[in-house]
Amino acid sequence: MQDQPEGLIEISNLRFSYPNLDVLKGLDLSVPRGKVVAILGASGCGKTTLLRLIGGQLRPAAGHVKVEGQVIHELGTDALYEMRRKMGMMFQQGGLMKLHSVGLRGAHPLMPSELSGGMSRRVALSRAIALDPMLIMYDEPFSGLDPISLTQIGNLIRGLNDALGVTSIVVTYDVAESLKVVDYAYFISDGRIVAQGTPDEIRASTDPFVRQFVDGLADGPVAFHMPGRPLAADLAL
């Protein structure tokens, strides 16, 4: 993305920690206007935390998140509220709004509990676009869906982004589905960006980290076991 103009979102040396846990350790990335960008990585790597920092729900320990040239954590309450009105977030549940655009106009009489998993996800998407935002953030939009619903949600993310002229961030661990719809992808590991590229570049990559995710390999840079004492030491207790 070095050839892209300044992004809608610019993140520089971003650091964030929870008590006793360093999550982001100097993260840098850019999200160009009008594009769909994926943030990929294993569970617990800080993907959702990154969305909360973009939305101003959390404050970084160092570095900054700029949206439209404004440093989010430096905004006052009123300015932050106005910025958030320009952002849409895809939740797992939501009210029945803008249903026609996601193919669910006939579902308006239904209660949320009567919706299938795929329908619920599309309702959540309609909620995210209800205020015509400039930025839509999707937190794990593909999880728990059947293959048909996966395709529907992916097509809606791509189609709505282009039709509405918005910018989209897709946070997910589903590499295969995200690469079908995004323009660019970043991989997070150990609190930093460890790989990035277009879908074609990601698919052709020989980087061990990327290959582990693309091919779904059990062994690789991402360990299955969290660090700890040897198993024999625990069994001896």
Protein described:
This protein has 237 residues and is α/β, with parallel strands linked by helices. Helix content is 30%, strand content 26%. The chain has helices at residues 47-54, 77-84, 117-128, 147-164, 175-179, 199-204, 208-215, 231-235; strands at residues 9-18, 21-31, 36-40, 62-67, 70-71, 87-90, 135-139, 167-172, 184-189, 192-197. The strands form two sheets. A six-stranded mixed β-sheet has the order 6-7-8-3-9-10. A four-stranded antiparallel β-sheet has the order 2-1-4-5, with helices on one face. Strand 7, helix 4 (147-164) and strand 8 form a beta-alpha-beta unit. Helix 3 (117-128) packs parallel to helix 4 (147-164). The chain is globular and about 60 Å long. The model is unreliable at 1-5, 92-96, 98-111 and 113-117 (pLDDT under 50).
List the helices and strands and how they pair.
Blueprint: E1 9-18, E2 21-31, E3 36-40, H1 47-54, E4 62-67, E5 70-71, H2 77-84, E6 87-90, H3 117-128, E7 135-139, H4 147-164, E8 167-172, H5 175-179, E9 184-189, E10 192-197, H6 199-204, H7 208-215, H8 231-235
Parallel strand pairs: 3-8, 3-9, 6-7, 7-8
Antiparallel strand pairs: 1-2, 1-4, 4-5, 9-10
